[in-house]
Amino acid sequence: MSAIDEIKERLDIVDVVSDYVTLQKSGHNFKALCPFHTEKTPSFFVFPERGTWHCFGSCGTGGDIFSFMMKQESIDFGAALRILAERAGVTLVAKQKERAIDKEVERLYSINEAAAQYYHHLLLNARAAETARRHLSERGISKETIDSFELGFSPDSWDAVCQHLEGRGYKGDELVNAGLVIAKEGGGFRDMFRNRLMIPIRNDGGKVVGFGARALDGTTPKYLNSSQTAIFDKSGLLYGIDRAKGAIREHGLAIIVEGYMDVLAAHQYGMTNVVAPMGTSLTQKQVGIIKRLTRNLALALDADAAGDQATLRGLELARQVFSERIAAMPDWLGATSKLQGNLKVILLPRGKDPDEVIRECPEEWLRLIDEASPLMDYFFKAVTSTLDLSHEDGKSAAVAQLLPRISEIADSVERELYLRRLSQLVGVDEKTLAGKAARLKPTARERAKKAVSLPTTQASSHPLEEYCLALLLQHPGLRERGMALPTDYFEGTENRELFLAWQNTTDADGFERIRQGLDVSLQEHLDALMSRVIPPASEREMETALDDCTRRLGEQHLRRLKALEELLLSEAESEGDKNVIKEQVETLLQKALEPTTQLKDLFEKARRERKGARQ
Ligand SMILES: [Zn+2]
């Protein structure tokens, strides 16, 4: 739970407001003369159950405890947060600790960057780096690529990098934390990487977080990575992602290759949508990174490894993560089947790495990408090549391995196609197979259902507001549409503040600017929204998602106003001064509704259309 939510939960809005305003009970709620404008009849209401307040007088505004404190004390969100946190007994110390961690992380980045520069300098200039330079030239890596990827060389020395970085003011212990040196048992330090080609690994923000290091003298292991540090987590990094992300978005396709050299070659030849996992098979986190950029993923597989069980398991994992998370798109965006991830396999010629194929003939590489086979075709090939289909055992094994995968295909036409193919393959009637598949189906459906409910199960008092903000923040293309959203739609002050900050930045790289202008607690909220996984979809689908989201927010807002209207009317009944209040209700509600009237028409139109489409 965030500090913001915890404060909201612990504090009673009635207590807080009572410090400034004399409240009278009114049914379940409280009313008072508005503290923000001068009036004779009370039009300021506090709703303890919702934790909100609203003024029906000339202010016409409302919100939660945070916005009340901000208005009452004329302070910003951060100041209101600190006052209320103290009152609620919620310590914001954790946030300070976080800031200290941020500092440590910054230090690690700068150590790694300094090391990368040092290694790069050596590769270009040191006589000892001759083998490394020759190795690169034999692999066809150009000077430009060496420079732009900042490739380097670690000398065959026990303390070269340690000495160099200590000379730059970094302490031995810090270098240990950065994974560049190792503490010796009897005291002192020694370099981790010696006589290796150094490949700086950058995170998606372009910061050096560690190194991949290739042996130049036959030492094992051939590749050595930085050990795990606070900023280097192999399972969550993709080599080349900092340069590839734009191209992946643009082409709508991410290509996964196996090694660093493959990435370098591809980028050198202008095929920049290529990344590599860090020497392991693809992890869930890595697939997650890609899925924020595209829903089309192609894995380049060496023909030698293509049939083996480890490869199949890796592909199965990628398939599951890819389709599951895609199904996590909130259901109001439309059928999840439309968003099914598209996973293909690029089969390389036997014994060849992508980097060789690309260097020898870039056109051949492009052809292989074009001819990439859908994952299901690949499964068919892989399964059938290892089984003897002339025997019953082989046939039932093929059904056991393929049918569950087929039954999970969301597209019905495609599903039938593969059922037919399986039926021909094993000589079992298509209907029998379909029946079997249908019995398997509930599990798949259940899984999808669970995934769909993911975004709403996160503890949040305003899930829809947050989803809407995440859409706007992560998709600059939605700016124009998003600008039209009324601020009132955001009831949570933290969300309203972020929305306002977003509205007030217009430049393309506005995100950092939004962030810098915010209180630390809101930065935390912003980061959470930025890192929320919104599965990729086309521009058009994103627009539809935002429109639906806007409609729903509008409906929520209308419902809130409607509840207020009822409240005021019952108030009018119980008071003698019926006419005055009734009049007040009408004019004020009219005012409050104005910006939403148009939207209301829109909702009704959309609803009619949806109804029409269903019939
Ligand atoms: Zn007022």
Explain what the structure shows.
There is one protein chain. The protein has 615 residues and is α+β, with helices and mostly antiparallel strands. The chain has a five-stranded antiparallel β-sheet with strand order 1-2-3-4-5. Strand 10 (208-215) and strand 11 (223-225) form a beta hairpin. Helix 26 (539-574) packs antiparallel against helix 27 (578-614). The model is unreliable at 325-339 and 442-459 (pLDDT under 50). Residues 34, 36-37, 44, 55, 57, 59 line the site of zinc ion.
Question: What characterizes the major β-sheet?
Answer: 5 strands, antiparallel
Number of strands: 16
Q: What general form does the structure show?
A: flat
Q: Whole-Å distance between the termini?
A: 44 Å
Ligand catalogue: zinc ion
Give me the secondary-structure category.
alpha+beta
Uncertain regions: pLDDT < 50 for 5+ in a row? Answer: 325-339, 442-459
